[in-house]
Write a structure and sequence with these properties.
Length: about 120
């Protein structure tokens, strides 16, 4: 196959993929009651590096650089991934550490669970 044929084939595949993505995110409808474009749910799990922590709030920076702030309430639990025993506290969270935050199902700005990475094994 010539280089021109391969490039043409790649171009056609890219156009088909873009067209499919367009029709998936913006479905064709009639009238004024068109649905909004599909987006990720507001209450999706967030993972990132802790940039600020207090007794009432936690701010993380996601991998894409976007900061996300969660309210810490009485119902917020702090756990360590893969470990049992002593429950963790908000004071165990340090600036710069990686965390996974599950927001409340009723309010995406309130942290329901904060998961800390497991401690490294003892040598």
């Amino acid at each position: 196959m010539s280089k021109k044929t391969v490039l043409s084939f790649i171009g056609v595949v890219a156009l088909i993929a873009l067209g499919a993505a367009y029709f998936y995110y913006y479905p064709a409808t009639s009238g004024t009651d068109a649905p909004a474009p599909k987006t990720a749910p507001d209450n999706s799990v967030s993972a990132g590096s802790v940039s600020a922590i207090s007794a009432t709030s936690l701010t993380i920076v996601k991998q894409n650089g976007a900061p996300v702030t969660f309210t810490i309430g009485a119902g917020t639990s702090v756990v360590s991934a893969g470990q049992t025993g002593t429950p963790k506290k908000v004071s165990d969270i340090t600036k710069g550490s990686m965390v996974l935050v599950t927001p409340s199902s009723s309010d995406a700005t309130v942290a329901q669970t904060i998961v800390l990475p497991p401690a490294p094994p003892m040598r």
